[in-house]
Amino acid sequence: MTRPEFALDVEAISAIPAVPVILSMVKHLTGMRFAAIARVTERHWVACAVDDSINFGLKPGGELVLETTICHEIRQHQQPVVFGHASADPQFATHHTPLTYGLESYISIPIVLPDDRFFGTLCAIDSVPADLSDPAIVKTLTLFAQLIAMSLDTQGHLESARAELTDANEHGRLREQFMAVLGHDLRTPLSAIRMSADLLATKTEDKRSLGLVSAIRQSSIRMGALIENVLDFARGRMGGGIPVKRHITDDLSDVLKATVDEIRASHPQASLIESIHLGGNVYCDPLRISQLLSNLLGNAVTHGSPTSPIHLHIWQECDQVIISVMNRGTPISPRLLPLLFEPFTRSEAGGRGEGLGLGLYIASQIATAHDGILTVSSSAELGTCFIARFPAVPPA
């Protein structure tokens, strides 16, 4: 019975497809009738694989007393040991190992892993002499031992990869639970808060109370936007992009005008100058394009100059829809421009740093999902300008 602490080693060797062929080749090259791969530690000698034609009696998992083996010495000096006729060899004629096991021929090659850890030996024995004088025998067995070591190392990396994959699957399950919490357990009570605020607004005329109700409503709207952004971020990272449902629509102008009105209502202090000219049908997901515009306008309100208007232009050109949002304010450093469309990095660009830094990332992902692109330029003379472009017609 294999000791539990060596079960993985025996399993690892048995999992190497080349091992039976290697042991057969060792017997063929040396002319000996027993070949094995042994795991050798400070206290144990354990057979991991065996090719036995002399009924030596060892099976995978079987042990020899470490001190009775030459592998105990090989573990210390990590050099091959070879003799072809023990009884005629001055060094091994009186050695305890050939005397104990009745051996005449013996060869053992150390197996050293790529990180210099000693694993064990590749060995062959027989009770009759063998001609081991050809240097090619030791060289070939050394290559076999290196092949075994590399295979064990590869298996170790594969096991680590499997463990990481298991962890990743577990993390994926936790992310799905996290999305479920966001999607239901948070949005549902938040909707109740907003409806309660609307109801309270109809039941009181006290200015102070109305001010508190308005603050509750605005906070719940902002919390809802944050939750939706995090949900979209999670969906995008888990599913390879933010999902969109594109179709032919003839009312995109109305949808985007309604988005502008919502921004005005939620940010009465902001000045918006818009020009929206879309003619005919557009192939898109109107709700996602509305979200893209809302994120760009929200970003302009948050990070632009409060004393300068935000300029919005939306038009069609060469079968493309173009959305341009420009605001004045402190220009963004050229070093930070490439980071703007990465998640959680917006606050690094200065400004007041509100939100999670997901708005521009999500806007960029929506543009990409529409086979389009979102770009940015920023200078003291021209201001900061975000331009989104995407095809207005379905792909051919």
TrEMBL record:
It holds the Pfam family HisKA. Its EC number is 2.7.13.3. GO terms for biological process: osmosensory signaling via phosphorelay pathway. InterPro entries: BphY/WalK/GraS-like (IPR050351), GAF (IPR003018), GAF-like_dom_sf (IPR029016), HATPase_C_sf (IPR036890), HATPase_dom (IPR003594), His_kinase_dom (IPR005467), HisK_dim/P_dom (IPR003661), HisK_dim/P_sf (IPR036097). Keywords: Kinase, Phosphoprotein, Transferase. It catalyses: ATP + protein L-histidine = ADP + protein N-phospho-L-histidine. The keyword Cell inner membrane does not apply. One of its GO terms (molecular function) is phosphorelay response regulator activity. Residues 181-394 form the Histidine kinase domain. This is histidine kinase. The lineage of its organism: Bacteria, Pseudomonadati, Pseudomonadota, Gammaproteobacteria, Pseudomonadales.
